[in-house]
Design a protein that fits this description.
- The protein is an alpha+beta fold and 700 residues long.
- It has two domains: 244 residues, Jelly Rolls; 265 residues, Transferase(Phosphotransferase), domain 1 (Orthogonal Bundle).
- Helix content is 25%, strand content 22%.
- Strands 1, 2, 4, 5, 8, 15, 16, 17 and 19 form a nine-stranded antiparallel beta sheet that branches.
- The radius of gyration is 29 Å and the shape is globular.
- The protein starts with a helix and ends in a 15-residue tail after the last strand.
- Bound molecules: 2-acetamido-2-deoxy-beta-D-glucopyranose (9 copies) and magnesium ion.
- One 2-acetamido-2-deoxy-beta-D-glucopyranose binds next to β2 and β19.
- Its EC number is 2.7.11.1.
- In the C-terminal section; belongs to the protein kinase superfamily. Ser/Thr protein kinase family.
- GO terms for molecular function: ATP binding; carbohydrate binding; protein serine/threonine kinase activity.
Length: 700
């Protein structure tokens, strides 16, 4: 018995101390508590990564938007010094991803070979702590990664939210496969990366065949067949001396990412890990304790519950900001009111950034992380509407695209909803276009902003799992990030006004001049009415003026009519913003104007889709030679003579006359409208309104 025990101890010691040599090592847990070990083989950690007492490597916990790195402390030689060809390597490791909310992982982890251990400048969220938006795809990165990705990012062409991918200097995988493994009899079985269970992964690179294989299994036995194979010569990616390790990140949704053990070998196949001898995950374990313990534990839990609920009610009386059951089902981070109050210094007027479409927007800095945020405060009279809307925050929060303003979280307090967004240092686009702009945007900047907004809108319409109709595209809702990229804000918010209202009188939300004419007839926002508003935006950006300019000459009152008149007489360059001083790319400018006219067509079917718009803007497809008059349809019906400002005036009246009760008109906000002529309107309509629906046809 004693002998057995000491044998076991020796064995355990052997396991917990990494066997180290120049190009191979094995960690069964990452503890380095043995005093007799002189090897410098503690992992180098940075970001949120830490090693727990039992030797478990925790790359991230469920804190939002953090990254964690863990690298082997000394670099490995990855190239044959005579031929400069990359060498073979083999590695396997055991990991577990425990999401904060079941089935909603964020974001994943990656086995990484990198020239540095710090990966400076790398970002969390979809970048997995590996890269950032500006160095994406650059061959000077020298980053090779095998990602275990639990969020589907369309930006990088992810196939689903549970995949393994091979990434070279970029987060767009060169090859990826849904997570799965092969049983011993070669049957393929699905595997859920974010199940919270331990998974072993094997990555083998054979430099003679340039073949990289990835295998997965929930057991200790290495499957015969890989689930992902890729032929690649890593000689160009890897440098002579490289670090190996792991990188992981969380975003708006978060998982704890753990690694339990790791073996690595440059001179042969890496030894597989025996999962049973690795450190175990924290959390609920199987309860084998006698009943009596169970009873005392449950009475303790009961007392705790009593205490907690007493605390709960005291708090409820003191401050009506308690989490209600329905709020717990929601994915994105729920901030506490105190946290946001502190961040915005008590919602001081000094921190006011402006009035957004639905409420006041404050600048804030989150304590702890020092992240700058914008907090939008929306008051809503109907609790029912608020409740339904909050249930949608989960899905809005999952929208991510580099041309959308990212929603970071939310908070509800009585009838107020607080939405926390990424801070956009340069504010909204309208401030740079109309009246006395802060500064004049160059043509290149304008064109880039247009293309960005188009790709953000395409994502909302076509690339996400649901079609999202924005409903309020306008310059005031385009925000500029630190690199002067255009990002759409306020998406999804129009729905707030729909919820909780009488179903027989739904309301049209939008801004005059951007509202597609059919909206007043059908009351039903569609992707095509968004395209109409986008057309108005295009013309605004080129011409540097609003779609409806009350101060302008009568024939210039309606922007699109004025542009069309100039187009007809072939004087199209006259409409371009004079503040550009003639410095613009004529070909691109004509493309934008032409596209603006096409999008402004009164007939929804005549407008291009956002996918076509993006293709035109990217120059992939040439625009049609002939552009039909935006009001051709109305002309046919004899509504107007097809000319000039008359149509505009009539159009404006249409809006008023199509409603039996014009008292429905009300200002949504005193916002941008107050001083600068935007008129936000909200109009009643009696037709049923259905906005988004699963597309189903794309097979997701
Ligand atoms: C490794 O980490 C342990 C615990 O943090 C520390 O006591 C030890 O000195 C470290 N060893 C080296 C070589 O850095
Ligand atoms: C994550 O870890 C950090 C420090 O390592 C800690 O401050 C934070 O509270 C942890 N967060 C959660 C959600 O456990
Ligand atoms: C490097 O390549 C040469 C030629 O193929 C070979 O002879 C040598 O053994 C290789 N060295 C290493 C360290 O693999
Ligand atoms: C290998 O790379 C080194 C340094 O980059 C260079 O000096 C050497 O000429 C290269 N050798 C071959 C065979 O390409
Ligand atoms: C992106 O990362 C690179 C290093 O890979 C760094 O030099 C650069 O400053 C980073 N860019 C941003 C915007 O953080
Ligand atoms: C790639 O990165 C290098 C160094 O960071 C930079 O000089 C170069 O412009 C980048 N190339 C591209 C295409 O972004
Ligand atoms: C892998 O993808 C990157 C970026 O998507 C690309 O630049 C590179 O050429 C690809 N490499 C291979 C070997 O396909
Ligand atoms: C392989 O084994 C699994 C269970 O071990 C079984 O469900 C499956 O039917 C087997 N497949 C074949 C082709 O034998
Ligand atoms: C590395 O490969 C060699 C040769 O196959 C083997 O003897 C050794 O045990 C392996 N080491 C590890 C840590 O996997
Ligand atoms: Mg991916």
């Amino acid at each position: 018995m004693e002998e057995k025990l000491s044998l076991f101890l020796v064995f355990a010691l052997f396991l917990s101390n990494p066997v180290f040599s120049v190009d191979e090592f094995i960690f069964n847990g990452f503890n380095d508590d043995a005093s007799n070990n002189n090897n410098n083989n503690n992992l180098s950690l940075n970001g949120a990564a830490e090693i727990e007492h039992n030797g478990l490597l925790k790359l991230t916990n469920t804190t939002l938007r953090v990254l964690g790195h863990a690298f082997y402390p000394s670099p490995n030689k990855f190239k044959n010094s005579t031929t400069n060809k990359s060498l073979s390597f083999s590695t396997c490791f055991a990991f577990a991803i425990v999401p904060e909310y079941a089935e909603l992982g964020g974001h994943g982890l990656a086995f990484t070979i990198s020239a540095t251990k710090e990966l400076l400048g790398a970002l969390p969220s979809q970048y997995l702590g590996l890269l950032n938006a500006s160095d994406m795809g650059n061959f000077t990165n020298h980053i090779f990664a095998v990602e275990f990705d639990t969020v589907q990012d369309f930006e990088f062409g992810d196939i689903n939210d549970n995949h393994v991918g091979i990434n070279i200097n970029s987060l767009s995988s060169n090859k990826s496969a849904p997570a799965a493994y092969f049983l011993q009899n070669s049957t393929k079985a699905a595997l859920n990366l974010k199940s919270g269970n331990v998974i072993q992964a094997w990555i083998d690179y054979d430099s003679t065949n340039n073949q990289l294989d990835v295998r997965l299994s929930p057991s200790s036995i290495k499957p015969r067949s890989p689930i992902l194979s890729f032929v690649v010569d890593l000689s160009l990616v890897l440098e002579d001396s490289m670090y190996v390790g792991f990188s992981s990140s969380t975003g708006l949704l978060a998982s704890s990412h753990y690694v339990m053990g790791w073996s690595f070998n440059m001179s042969g196949e890496a030894e597989s890990l025996s999962l049973s001898s690795l450190p175990s995950l924290p959390g609920p374990k199987k309860n084998h304790t006698p009943l009596i313990v169970g009873v005392s534990v449950s009475s303790f839990v009961f007392m705790l519950l009593v205490a907690v609920s007493a605390f709960y009610f005291i708090r409820k009386i003191k401050n009506a900001d308690v989490i209600e059951a329905w709020e717990l089902d929601v994915g994105p981070h729920r901030f506490s009111y105190q946290e946001l109050k502190k961040a915005t210094r008590g919602f001081r007027d000094k921190e006011l950034l402006g009035f957004g479409g639905f409420g006041k927007v404050y600048k804030g800095t989150l304590a702890g992380t020092n992240t700058r945020v914008a907090v939008k405060r929306i008051s809503h009279e109907s609790k029912q509407g608020l409740r339904e809307f909050v249930s949608e925050i989960a899905s809005i929060g999952r929208l991510r695209h580099r041309n959308l303003v990212q929603l970071l979280g939310w908070c509800r307090r009585r009838g107020d909803l607080l939405l926390v967004y990424d801070f956009m240092p340069y504010g909204s686009l309208d401030k740079y276009l109309f009246d006395e702009p802060k500064s004049i945007l160059s043509w290149e900047e304008r064109f880039r902003i247009i293309k960005g907004v188009a790709s953000g809108l395409l994502y909302l319409h076509d690339e996400w799992e649901q079609t999202v109709v924005h409903r309020d595209i306008k310059a005031g809702n385009v925000l500029l990030d630190c690199e002067m990229n255009g990002r759409l804000g306020d998406f999804g918010l129009a729905k707030l006004h729909e919820h909780g209202t009488n179903p027989s009188t739904t309301r049209v939300v939008g801004t005059l001049g951007y509202l597609a004419p059919e909206l007043t007839r059908t009351g039903k926002p569609t992707t095509s009415s968004d395209v109409f508003a986008f057309g108005a935006l295009l013309l605004e950006v080129v011409c540097g003026r609003r779609p409806i300019e009350p101060k302008a000459l009568p024939e210039e009152f309606i922007l699109v009519d004025w542009v069309w008149d100039k187009w007809k007489v072939g004087a199209i360059l006259d409409v371009i913003d004079p503040r550009l001083n003639g410095e613009f790319d004529e070909i691109d400018a004509v493309v934008v104007i032409k596209l603006g006219l096409m999008c402004s067509n009164n007939v929804p079917e005549e407008r291009p889709t956002m996918r076509q718009v993006v293709r035109y803007l990217e120059g992939e497809v040439a625009l049609p030679e002939v552009v039909t008059s935006p009001d051709a349809y109305d002309s046919k019906k004899g509504n107007t003579s097809g000319g000039g400002g008359g149509r505009g005036g009539l159009q404006f009246e249409d809006y008023v006359h199509s409603y039996p009760n014009s008292s429905y008109f009300e200002k949504v906000s005193n916002s941008s409208s107050a001083g600068d002529g935007d008129v936000d309107i909200e109009a009643g309509s009696t037709s049923p309104l259905s906005v988004s629906g699963s597309r189903g046809s794309n097979g997701r």
